[in-house]
Batch of 2 targets.
Target 1
Amino acid sequence: MPVLEVNDLHAEFRLDTGTVRAVNGVSFSVEPGQTLAVVGESGSGKTATALSILRLHPTPPCVYTGGEIVAGGRDLLTLPEREMRQVRGNEIAMIFQDPMTSLNPVKTVGAQIVESLRRHRSLPRGEARARAVEALREVGIAHPEARAGQYPHQLSGGMRQRVMIAMALACRPKLLIADEPTTALDVTVQAQIMELMADLQDRFGMAIVLITHDLGVVAQVADKVLVMYAGRPVEAAGADDLFERPRMPYTRALLESMPRPDVPGGAVLDPIRGAPPNLLDLPSGCAFHPRCGFARPECASTVPALEEKAPGHAAACVLTDDDLPGTSEGRRVSGT
Amino acid sequence: MTTATAGRTGAPARPASNTMWHAVRRALRRNHAAKVAIGVLFLVVIVGVFAPLIAPHDPNAQNLTLKLRPPFWSAGHQPGYPLGTDNLGRDVLSRIVYGTRISLLVGVSATLLSGVVGTAVGLVSGYYRGWRDQVFMRLADIQLAFPTILLALAIIAVLGPSLWFVILVLGLTGWVNYARVVRAEVLSLRSREFVVAARAIGDNDRQIMTRHLLPNITAPLVTIGTLQVAAMIIAEASLGYLGLGVPPSIPTWGGMLADGQLYLRSAWWIAVFSGAAIMLTTLSINVTGDMLRDVADPKAYTK
């Protein structure tokens, strides 16, 4: 049974300037111990989807207009706020992009972990304190007793993200949503954090929804991938399958815009032309067609549905496998 | 919180949980005016607390045979009455000493009261925004448009003079400063990621406001609070001067000032000494408040 199943989720923001359909018919499911990566450019609806799962969007302006989010046998979208708070941090936890700002600057990190523990477990203060130190040790922080008494500004970015992870995992959630957890960190620290998350996933058997735009990271850790564009899911497949044979031109374009210094000619980037569309004024038909190298006349009029093109591989595109040339050998990312 | 000692065993130094206190000490080292001010404040508090032990006479004991005696250095002074006597022969020093209690009591209680009300209003306004914000901020506008003294006068004229009414009235009219500052701070804090993170671990609105937002605004609160104590002392003295403060049986600085005004030509010491007490106390509080503001905002003094 999946830890989380999202079916045809719609969320929109009603602003003075218009309505932004930030999440437009997103569906996916995650099994225990599995990692699902949600990828896309800035503004593609990745983070909006992640925040929707825990209903963290301020309402208004956000309105959940349809779909369901099933976790633990109930629909989170219809759960009363009171019960929703029991889900947050307890069954489903979340870590954020910028560890510099996601910790409270005026509280010691130990106190913050203690708070998140005591929110969901009735522990005596002393025991919660000991568990907090233990949690810091689990995420590989040296001298956890001393670190627990420090303030966020006394820790490095990587350590702060470790603290966030310790906080998120303190109650042993079944699912961790990681919203670009490594974007604000150095490359070397990024690798350490990803490794740590994989380690903890093995130990605790939790599922991870990883929001990222780093396809290198996706190739390393993801089991399944959901590609989003302009609020819509445009391709969903197993990670190997997706890198092997992307079936939506946008995914291809994303893969081609990655530097590949290890293959001849791969260091030359092939960027996606144009810019992500304005969500207040989406192009007609397939939102990607103005930037698509394979666009046809009908792309401007009909919105393609996300349908299965091969077993376990869905794409929202009018093109069939015969229309798409195979990915050139030099551009293949799989096998990394 | 414990005062931690830095470990020298290679472990990261235990952070000082008294960072604010260190900053205060550092600020004091270069700010001599603040040193003096804190010394004066300390003295004022001691005098207020131990008034019965310090005052040489009963502040209300009248002795008409000794009325309007000058302070000790003038000819005709009465030994045992170092700052002279007033028109009813009461000891000016003792009355000032006892007046300290009222000034401090009113200043601190009214400040606390308005601080609690104002902070609560500011938190709710800034956090929820929407109609609550509209209502509270319009109330604040109305409050500001009203001269506080006039409002206090009207209320006390109706309810009658009482120490607690004075505290209540001053406390309930002083909330606007806090509400506005807290609201502005909360508006900038509420969209910070740690607030979203707090919701993501299951905190409710009240917990976010009290455990996450409030600790982040203590610095401005301390600063406004300090300055407000001085303002409250002046306000109490003004009401006393107008004869609408606490009942006349309780000696207050403002009341002494009003009494002394009538005798300014013949017995200047009544008004001058009580006025000096007001000035010295509020000046010290303001200087201390300035120092605290510098501590709260390091940018204000780093060059």
Target 2
Amino acid sequence: MNNTSSLEMISTGRRQRRLRGMAVTSLLALLACVLSVSMLLLGNTIYSISDVIRVLFGEQVQGVSFAVNTIRLPRMLAGLLAGFAFGIGGCVFQTMLRNPLANPNVIGITSGSSAGAVFCIIILQADRMVISVASVVAGLATVIVIYLLSRGKVFSIGRLILIGIGLQAMLDAFISYFLLVGAQQDIPAALRWLTGSLNGTQMHELPPLIFTVLFFTPIVILLGKQLSILELGEQSAISLGVNTDKTRLGLILGSVCMIAIATATTGPIAFVAFLSGPIAKRLVGAGFLSLVPAGLVGVNLVLAADLLGQFAFDYRYPAGIITAIIGAPYLIFLLIHMNRKGDL
Amino acid sequence: MSNVTILKNKQNKPYVPSNLTIVLIFSLLMLGLCVIGSLALGSRVVTMDGLIDGLFHQQVQSYEADVVRKRISRTVFSLLCGAALGVAGALMQAVTRNPIADPSILGVNMGASLFVVCGMAFWHITTAGQYIWLALAGAAVTAVFVFGIGSMGRGGATPIKLVLAGAATSAALSSLVTAIMIPRSTVMDQFRFWQVGSVGSGTWSSISLFLPFLIIGILIAVLSAPALNALALGDEAANGLGVRTGTLRFAAAMAGVLLCGAATALAGPIGFVGLLSTHVIRLLLGPDVRYIIPLSAIAGAIILTVSDITGRLIGSPGELEVGVVTAFIGAPILIILAMKSKVRSL
């Protein structure tokens, strides 16, 4: 009697949590759709929905075709895909390391990718493909270095974060050096790119990002089921039959590739990888895998920041500045919260 | 009876690190080499004759001699700045009782930068004499803020909490700096000039502006050193030994802020010098603050000057900002400290 009632309670609880998760996810997806559509409609001139739809289906409309096809559509797609990649990648790291501070922005993985990309842009003057590959390689190398350095006898997340911050300082020094020795005419491009901006994204730059997101999202989501078990801690995960090493390797590979390619395309849009996970977790609540919601939160953040940057002020700010101004205070708030609770 | 003799013995012979003389001689030698290097090396390398002409024969007019004379103020400025940053690092580490304290890691440099940028953007400030006060105010506010966040909760200001608070504050402030700067192209030029200027902007007038702050800061540092030694034993023990911990902390922290704020105002944000110099000296001489402070000053001067020379040689014909070089040399120290530290003390 007692047994069945508690079982019932558990299953209703689970149902409720799943319902909430589903509802939040669909709401986030809806919001992302609204933002993407407004990215296409808004600009120096505002086009009607019917015009934009006709253009998207291949019709030629005077004036509209050019603006939508060469400027607004690539911009929207870049924001959409990069936001998703940042959101999901950041959330994987935060969940895996069980600490919201342990994310690519704070421990220097984004800086690693940026350094690789800047090296290619300025020193090698390489093409898109090389830049993408280099930023993935540099991002993975950063992860490996952080892992090797922070191994120690007992793993400590605090040590890992400290090492990451030190590494980030070195990588940023590298970036400054590349900017110094680079040819004058390449530097504005590199600087604009470093603030993280959707400005001037072109259609032919997008394929690497599209393929990476389409390829790695399913893998990461599939492995994500085991991620929630990993969250219980190493020992529990092993005794529940999870191959922790393989799962971790797959997750790290997938999320670093996504983040690095997104970084190579739009530049490191500040704090999106850091913000998405905690926001998504708070929205969906516990007990629901928050990877997809985190990706959607990332999309919404990037698109909203880009729209705000374009239209809310006298000056057109790049998206990265807006996300940084939102994200940095949240980081401080989170720190205060964690310190009070004694989590650090 | 025997206790008394021991005590007397101790009072007669204060503790002196065994290798003090060697370290002192070696570091002064290094300092001399740095000065010569800084005068001779750069995008144009000067010969020995040119160096001697430039320094001692005022009547000789040659290209090389002029180059050397131009480099004198820069060298003096980098020595003084390095000394200020070294002492600031030593003070901050002693006050927070924390091996990972440095103006740049605690975000104090960035606070100074933000205030200077605000001054340029909103009050149209242009002279170094005005930057210095703004930078000091920014440094002080940020130091209090970061230390406040870092010492919340259980265990007080542990290294990891302080570093994270500093990194987060730096990130927040630097995004504000960018947001203020981007739409204003004149401010951007001015700021970049200030930021990139580094020790190369050292003129005799900026040196004379900087000296009072340096002297006051170092004086406070030297005077508070014995009490800082007591503070290393913990607040209660220090109280028991007759130290007013509150006053001491305030005075020493303000001296640290004074030193690094003034250096930042004139040379732009330069990181990791204090961390590096203090740790090298502590490794060589042990934990006595009375020796760490003066020798950190020398070590800081050496590190900053060597970094400046390196930046000039790597970046030739331009120059690499000295802050970039120090970050590159100093950040590994942070990593090594993190690797060596025991898990519990994080």
